Amino acid sequence: MNTIQKVEVFSISLPVTQTFRFSSGTAGSAGGTASIALVKLTDSGGNVGWGEGRPMPQWSYETIESVTSTIRTYLGPAILGLDITDRWGLHQRMQSVIGRGPSTGMPVARAALDMAVHDLCARNAGIPLRNYLGGGSQRNTVELSYTLTSHDVESVKKEIIAAKEKGFRHFNFKAAVTSETDQALARAIRQTAGPDAFVWADANQGLQPHEALTLARSFADAGVNVLEQPFPADQLQLMRRLRQQCPVPLAIDEASVSAADFFQYAAEGLVDYLVIKVTRSGGIWPSLQQIAVAASAGLPLLVSGLTDSLLTKMAVCQLAVVFGHHGPAALNGSQFLDESALYPNKAEIEFDGAVHLGMQPGIGVQPRQEALESA
């Protein structure tokens, strides 16, 4: 029996190559840096697994300082000596030192350790993570959704044309700018992207109740496929009111950190999709529970991220294909971050608007140790 013997956490700053704005703030400005926590687990046999946490204070309360200190001081020591395959026990131990409030406590920090444990288990088994989770090798490609950043019609059309030349077929955009802007962008995106594109509007909690229904109707007329998180995460009653007359499919993001959160929305019939976001949900193990809820409710999947690096992107894609989901996946870290120092071979994995999973054991990629040591 292999047990967890060592937990290391590294804080690294990656260059931001493009400004990414949304209704509640920004995920980084061009020329700045983005902070990422990387976790390295070593077991009693000397084997290693890697995980990532991408704290985003604008989307949740966690920061790079709180994630790294929580792992080093609380979560890491709590899981030492644990059988690496005991993923239920992993979350029980983490729960014993960082409890839950209204929802999961410190989900980004938990996700980094959970991901590393899954990577370690699959590596020890000598198989890709998707096989370890019960999937088949032949399901190995996930199409990406390109995140549009422009807020004027002509610029967004140029973005789409350029993205299509790179192989992208699906597009997501940040709504809740102004009602007029949102409506114009939705029409332009559908027109330029074509009838087969999946068009995904994400309001990031930014809509006002008096405008939401009118905007949703215009989105439906424009051919938007889904509207994500129109209201603040704690305003369930607003979702109930919108749902009564809403003509466009709905999804939630910030409002669903645990399987219990998603169950409430699914049980009331308020959502049409589960958005899988492993970092937000505390890891792969809790995400499996969310997927079980969605399957029981007959709801399909979408995939999203927190502008994470390639490690999380690969882990999430490995999870998605287990359940036959091949996209769209709004895993857009590569659009906004320069990951070349950590993952110099990324172009062999991500190309033609998709992630291509190989047969390497585990998640399928790991950060360059030299880059971490020099950070």
TrEMBL record:
InterPro entries: Enolase-like_C_sf, Enolase-like_N, Enolase_C-like, Mandel_Rmase/mucon_lact_enz_CS, Mandelate_racemase_C, Mandelate_racemase_N_dom
Keyword DNA repair set for record: no
This protein's record includes keyword Transmembrane: no
Species lineage: Bacteria, Bacillati, Chloroflexota, Ktedonobacteria, Ktedonobacterales
Residues covered by the Mandelate racemase/muconate lactonizing enzyme C-terminal domain: 153-249
Coiled coil spans: none
Domain of life: Bacteria
Keywords: Isomerase, Metal-binding
Protein name, per record: Mandelate racemase
Pfam families reported for this sequence: MR_MLE_C (PF13378), MR_MLE_N (PF02746)
PANTHER family recorded: O-SUCCINYLBENZOATE SYNTHASE, O-SUCCINYLBENZOATE SYNTHASE-RELATED
Family: Belongs to the mandelate racemase/muconate lactonizing enzyme family.
